[in-house]
TrEMBL record:
InterPro entries: Cytosol_ACT, HOTDOG_ACOT, HotDog_dom_sf, Thioestr_dom
Cellular component GO terms, alphabetical: cytosol
Gene expressing this chain: Acot12_0
Catalytic activity: butanoyl-CoA + H2O = butanoate + CoA + H(+)
Localization per Swiss-Prot or TrEMBL: Cytoplasm
Chief localization: cytoplasm
A family per Pfam: 4HBT
Name of the protein this chain belongs to: ACO12 thioesterase
An annotated GO BP: acetyl-CoA metabolic process
Native organism taxonomy: Eukaryota, Metazoa, Chordata, Craniata, Vertebrata
Keyword Cytoplasm: yes
GO molecular function: acetyl-CoA hydrolase activity; carboxylic ester hydrolase activity
Superkingdom per UniProt: Eukaryota
Domain HotDog ACOT-type: 1-52, 114-229
């Protein structure tokens, strides 16, 4: 909330050969009681920017506490699950592309997903980029959340509350001067929550004229919504 104090702590949990996991914890401080409450936890994967074509190999992290040893062990499991997810989804997508695998969905009161499609276009300016000229990842995520929340609001008729961001991945960079096109659509609803898929494509001036986009990001954002009494709202079913 406005006026509260936010503390953000980040630490490298584990260094793999050429990548590392950074754990991020966000807490809010109550200035009256001097207590802290966790509001968000995330794990980001980084690689070092190479000089030339060779990848930068990383040194192991020196562990100093029991908590660091635990996070170090969990990091390899999170990496294994993350890579496993990619294989599972790739297999599902290959199977869904087989002829005759489509189905018709008919349910009374179902809302067409077409009504939830939202598109936004942003121009990357110098304040949106780091000293290398690459767009800040956090800026892209903020734009993605905005377009996704508008998509979710088409169903709940209220202000959606972001609960989690899943499978957020950078497939490629974008730069100052690029046009970024954000497309969001509701994929499915789960009673009190909704999944919105967002795809981001980048164009430089030449690519814009030729209509040759670069797919740079995708993510799945989970939202819920509450009424004036703070009770969770039920989302209607959707028709793909």
């Amino acid at each position: 909330r406005v006026g509260q104090i936010i503390a953000i702590r980040a630490k490298v949990n584990r260094a793999f050969k050429t990548s590392m996991e950074v754990g991020i914890k966000v807490t809010v401080q109550d200035v009256l009681t001097n207590t802290e409450k966790i509001v968000s936890v995330a794990y980001a994967t980084y690689v070092a920017k190479p000089v030339g074509t060779a990848k930068v190999e990383l040194k192991p992290v020196k562990l100093l506490s029991t908590e660091e040893h635990l996070e170090h062990s969990l990091a390899i499991e999170r990496r294994r699950i993350r890579l496993g997810y990619a294989q599972v989804f790739q297999k599902l997508m290959q199977e869904s592309n087989k002829e005759g695998d489509y189905y018709t969905f008919e349910e009374k009161g179902a809302v067409s997903t077409e009504l939830t499609h939202v598109q936004s276009i942003e121009l990357v300016l110098p304040p949106h980029a780091n000293h290398h000229g690459n767009t800040f990842g956090g800026q892209i995520m903020a734009w993605m959340e905005t377009v996704a929340s508008i998509s979710a609001s088409r169903l709940c008729r209220s202000h959606p509350i972001l609960k989690s961001v899943n499978m957020f991945k950078f497939w490629g960079p974008s730069f100052v001067g690029d046009r970024l096109v954000f497309n969001a659509v509701v994929n499915n609803t789960f009673h009190n929550s909704v999944e919105v898929g967002v795809r981001v494509e980048a164009y430089n001036c030449e690519e814009w004229i030729k209509d040759q986009p670069r797919h740079i990001n995708s993510a799945f954002l989970i939202f819920s919504a509450v009424n004036a009494q703070g009770k969770l709202l039920t989302f209607p079913r959707v028709k793909p």
